[in-house]
Structure formats: structure tokens, C-alpha cells
Design a protein that fits this description.
The chain is an alpha+beta fold. The chain has one domain. Helices cover 40% and strands 23% of the residues. It has 6 helices and 4 strands. The chain has a 4-stranded antiparallel beta sheet with strand order 1-2-3-4, sandwiched between helices. Helix 2 runs antiparallel to helix 3. The chain is globular. The model has no long low-confidence stretch (mean pLDDT 84).
């Protein structure tokens, strides 16, 4: 039986379908910090990439498992650098990234914020990749869609202030 890879995801990617998933993700509100107790159907960037790239002959689950098994390290690095979407499709471009740490425990949990531009719908998506190594937990999803880069930067700075105010941030 064939093992699928990241290249298969890219080759079978449906941009319009994925943009609908991204737009839907932006409407969800998730508490800070995002915890492992999120609802079962919480926004999930990787899951939506797979759903937007599925091959009809196999299940979403098999496709996702094969991709992670064959390209897990590459995908993790692409997520942490903010370049995952630009690797999938040229419509997306990483414009700016931010990294905030919070808490007073080691290893420190991380908030990665990425401002991603979309050529087709002329907007900016703000993605959050949250990682808590101690809990072995990570989640990434779109938290906001805005019309220009300045609004995106302003939003991320407001998020940083929330983290500081709630003592979720280490300077």
C-alpha cells in the first residue's frame, strides 16, 4: 500500500476549500492559554490542510497519519518558522512573525504568532501556534483575519499585552 507524503498534500491541495476552513477558524474563540482540553472539533490548521488535500481513495485519517509519519520533522519546522502555508501554496506568504514565552516553569510554553498574507482574497491571516513541551501539547489555528498588515500587527501587540496582563508572558 502506498505511503503518502507532504508532496501528495501539496499536489492534491484545494486552495478555495482551505480558505473556507481558514475563514471558519477565525470565527472561533479559544481561551488563553489554549489547553489540551479543547473541544473535539476545535480549529486545527494541519487537519484542515489535510481535509483540503484529501485523496478520494483513502481516508483523511490515513492520509494525515502517512504525512506525519513521513514528513513530521519537516512539518514541525515549517510550523515553527511560520512557512507551512507558503510551502503548501504560493498564495500564502509569511509577512511577520512573533514569539512570546509565558509562565515561570521550565520548559517554557511558547506562543508563535504569524501574519500571513493571501494574494487571492487580499487579506492577512493571523495564525497562532501554541506549544507546551512539558505537557506534550501543541495546537495551531487561525485566530483573526484582517484587511491590512498594520491591523494585523496591532492585533498581535494587543494579544501580547493580554499575555503580559494575565502573567502568561516572560519578558
Amino acid at each position: 500500500m502506498k505511503k503518502y507524503s507532504f508532496d501528495d498534500l501539496v499536489e492534491n491541495f484545494d486552495l478555495n476549500k482551505f480558505i473556507k476552513y481558514l475563514d471558519k477558524q477565525c470565527k472561533n474563540k479559544i481561551s488563553y492559554p489554549p489547553t489540551p482540553n479543547l473541544p473535539k472539533n476545535h480549529p486545527d490548521l494541519i487537519g484542515d490542510l489535510v481535509k483540503s488535500s484529501s485523496i478520494k481513495k483513502i481516508s483523511h485519517e490515513k492520509f494525515a497519519n502517512d504525512i506525519i509519519e513521513n514528513n513530521g520533522d519537516f512539518i514541525d519546522q515549517a510550523r515553527e518558522s511560520g512557512n507551512l502555508l507558503s510551502y503548501v501554496h504560493s498564495n500564502f506568504k509569511l509577512e511577520k512573525d512573533y514569539l512570546f514565552a509565558y509562565g515561570d516553569k521550565e520548559p517554557t510554553p511558547w506562543y508563535f504568532y504569524f501574519i500571513i498574507s493571501s494574494k487571492i482574497n487580499k487579506c492577512f491571516y493571523i495564525l497562532l501556534f501554541f506549544q507546551d513541551i512539558e505537557l506534550g501539547y501543541q495546537v495551531d489555528y487561525c485566530i483573526k483575519k484582517v484587511k491590512n498588515k498594520d491591523l494585523a500587527i496591532k492585533f498581535v501587540k494587543e494579544e501580547q499585552k493580554k499575555l503580559e496582563k494575565n502573567k502568561f508572558y516572560i519578558k
